Every structure is written in C-alpha cells, then in structure tokens.
Amino acid sequence: MTAKLACAVMTLAEACLGDRRRDWALAMHAEFEVSIDDGRPLSFAVGCLIGAVRDMPKHAEGRFTLTSHVVALGIFPIAALLIVGTASGFPFLPSGHAGIAGWLAGSGAPSSLLTPWNRNFAPALAVLIWGLVAGHLLMPWFILERNWTRVGTLARVNSAATVTLLLFTTVLFLDIAFMVLPLAALAIELLAIWQLYRWQTDLFEGAPPGALGA
Predict the structure, then answer these.
(1) Is 94 helix (H, G, I), strand (E, B) or coil?
(2) Alpha-carbon distances of 131 from 49, 126, 145, rounded to whole Å
(3) pTM of the model
(4) Each residue of 124-169: pLDDT tens digit?
(5) Which candidate, 191, 204, 185, 188, places its Cα nearest to that of 64?
(6) Which one, 27, 99, 170, 198, has the greatest CB density within 10 A?
(7) Could you tell me if 11 and 111 lie in one domain?
C-alpha cells in the first residue's frame, strides 16, 4: 500500500515539473527506484513533490500549471451555487425591501422565485440549470487536460443555456436580478479560460491541440 501511494505521489511530482523539467523528472525517477530498494519510497516521493511544487513558480510553465489549477478549482463553487439554487427552489431573490444586495449582505429572508402561476415551468428551469451544472463539472477536467476544443464547446453550451435561462427569467419572473450571479460568473469564467488559452499559445510558441473557437 505504501509503495502504491509513493508511486502516486511521485507521478504527481513528475507532472508538476512539466515537459521543460523532464531531465530533472527522469533523474528523480531513477533515484526513486533506488529509494524503493532502500525501503523509503514514500518519504523520498513526498520530498520530490515538495521540491517540484516549490520550483513551479520559478518558471513560466509552472506558473501556467498553477494558474490552470486555480481556475479549474474556481469553477466548482459556481456548480455548487447552481446545485443549491435548484435544490432549494431558486432562492436567489429575497422578498422584502432588502433586495438581492441585502440578501448577499445577510439581511432579508430568501424566498423562492417560483409562484403558483409559474411553478409548472420549474422542470424546464431545472433542466437548464442542471445542464449548466454538468458543464461546469466537466470544464475543470478539460482545462487541466488542455483540451481547448472541448472547453470551447462547453463554453458555448454554457453560454447558450445561460442566455436561455435569462429569457425564461425575464418572461416568468419579470426581474433579472436572479441572473446577476450566473451572468457575472459566466463572464469571469469565459475571460479566465480565454486568457489561459492565449497564455498557453504564447508559452509553447504555437497553437495547442484544438482551438477554443473551433
């Protein structure tokens, strides 16, 4: 069990080094084989991982990798927000005088956007939001794989779903305050993804496999 864990940690350390530190990764791997014979593979692997992580901010590829992980992890809270909203009846718009700003500040009790006359549209809204949830859960995986073709496809699907949700909101709720958070999150997400794509293109001096606009 310890050997398998050490191998996993070592694989992560080698991945952190990236292609431009391949010689270092090969040297660490050779020393790792020796550490297995010495009975200390896990401690050696952990040391390699710490060293690799410390080295990452020192070179462009490492900074790009760290930023990619930050962006990928930052997408998960968006999916969580949508899941909570769907499960609790779209409670993003509170009742009373506080408004959405007051709810975000902690004042005003949240209430469902659904009313007796528009409650029949709840399944359609739920399908749209769960589609957005699926898109946001898949997006980090493709970002870390640097599969920009699939990232671009998901970005277009998420944008289309958000626009459709905006239209539903305008027609059914007569107040687009509900869409402030989803629209802001989508704009930030698309900007971050585009900047990552441009950064990788500049970093590797050529377009990566797949194009965001393809």
Answers:
(1) strand
(2) 37, 8, 21
(3) 0.63
(4) 777 887 888 888 888 888 888 888 899 999 999 888 888 888 887 7
(5) 204
(6) 99
(7) no
